[in-house]
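Severity: low
Component: inverse-folding endpoint
Summary: output formatting inconsistent between runs
Steps to reproduce: submit the following C-alpha cells with default settings.
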C-alpha cells in the first residue's frame, strides 16, 4: 500500500472539513506516493519520537498534534525543530496529523476519554459552527464527590498532578462533560448542558474565575491525557489493514511527550 491509501481511510473517518479554523491538520511532511509498511502512532512529533521512528524503520507517522504549528522562518539545522524536519526527510518518513477533526470524530478522542472514565449513556454536546459535536457527556456508574472524582481521574490517567476548579468539592456529582485538550472556552456549552463537572485541559486563569462565578466545577487534568490516541489509533489502523489485506505493522510510540513535571 501507499501513504495515500491510509490517508484516504483517515479522512473518511475524520474529514478535514470538520477541523477547527486555523488548525494545521492534515499532510505535514513527506510523500504520500511512497510505500508504507510500518506505521507509528503518536500524540506529538518530537525529536525523541522521530528517533524512535527511525530506530523502528517506520515509513509513516500518524500523529494527533500537528508537526508544523508555525511555519519555519529558515532551514537552519541548528534549530532543533528544523533538524527534526531534516531527519524525517532523510529517512523518508511521511507525517500526517489528525487533530481537531479526530476530536469531533465518532469514535474519536472525546469518545475514548469518556469511555476511559466509564461514563454511561454517552451523548454529544458543544457544537462547532457547522453543527458538528466536539464534546461528550455521560453519567458516572456511581455518584461521587467532586474531589473524589478528581482523585479518580488522577489515578485513571496516572497523573502526578491536576488542577481542580471548584467552590463545592464535596458536592455529589453524576453528570460529566469532557473535551480533551484546550477547551476551556467551551465551558458555556457545559453550563447549557447542565453537567455537574466539566473536564478539560489548559484552563486559563481568568477563565477559571469565570467558571467559579458561574458555579461550575471543572477538573483540568492537563493536555497529555490525549495520549490515549496512540493505542486507539493503532487499533483502528490494524483493523483497516486486516480488512483491506494490507501488509502493515502498526506500533504506538513509547515516548512520554508530556512537557510538564509536577514537583
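Observed output (run 2 of 3):
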Amino acid at each position: 500500500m501507499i501513504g495515500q491509501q491510509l490517508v484516504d481511510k483517515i479522512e473518511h473517518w475524520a474529514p478535514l472539513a470538520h477541523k477547527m479554523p486555523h488548525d494545521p491538520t492534515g499532510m505535514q511532511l513527506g510523500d504520500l506516493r511512497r510505500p508504507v509498511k510500518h506505521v507509528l502512532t503518536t500524540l506529538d512529533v518530537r525529536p525523541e519520537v522521530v528517533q524512535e521512528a527511525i530506530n523502528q524503520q517506520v515509513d509513516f507517522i500518524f500523529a494527533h498534534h500537528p508537526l508544523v504549528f508555525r511555519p519555519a522562518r529558515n532551514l537552519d539545522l541548528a534549530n532543533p525543530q528544523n533538524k527534526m524536519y531534516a531527519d524525517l526527510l532523510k529517512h523518508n518518513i511521511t507525517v500526517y496529523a489528525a487533530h481537531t477533526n479526530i476530536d469531533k470524530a465518532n469514535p474519536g478522542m472525546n469518545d475514548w476519554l469518556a469511555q476511559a472514565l466509564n461514563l454511561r449513556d454517552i451523548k454529544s454536546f458543544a457544537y462547532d459552527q457547522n453543527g458538528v459535536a466536539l464534546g461528550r457527556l455521560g453519567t458516572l456508574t456511581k455518584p461521587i464527590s467532586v474531589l473524589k472524582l478528581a482523585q479518580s481521574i488522577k489515578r485513571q490517567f496516572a497523573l502526578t498532578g491536576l488542577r481542580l476548579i471548584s467552590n463545592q468539592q464535596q458536592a455529589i456529582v453524576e453528570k460529566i462533560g469532557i473535551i480533551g485538550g484546550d477547551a476551556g472556552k467551551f465551558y458555556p456549552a457545559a453550563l447549557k448542558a447542565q453537567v455537574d463537572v466539566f473536564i478539560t485541559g489548559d484552563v486559563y486563569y481568568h477563565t477559571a474565575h469565570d467558571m467559579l462565578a458561574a458555579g461550575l466545577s471543572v477538573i483540568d487534568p492537563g493536555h497529555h491525557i490525549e495520549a490515549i490516541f496512540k493505542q486507539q489509533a493503532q487499533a483502528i489502523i490494524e483493523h483497516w489493514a486486516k480488512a483491506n489485506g494490507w501488509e502493515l505493522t502498526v506500533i504506538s510510540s513509547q515516548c512520554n511527550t508530556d512537557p510538564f513535571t509536577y514537583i
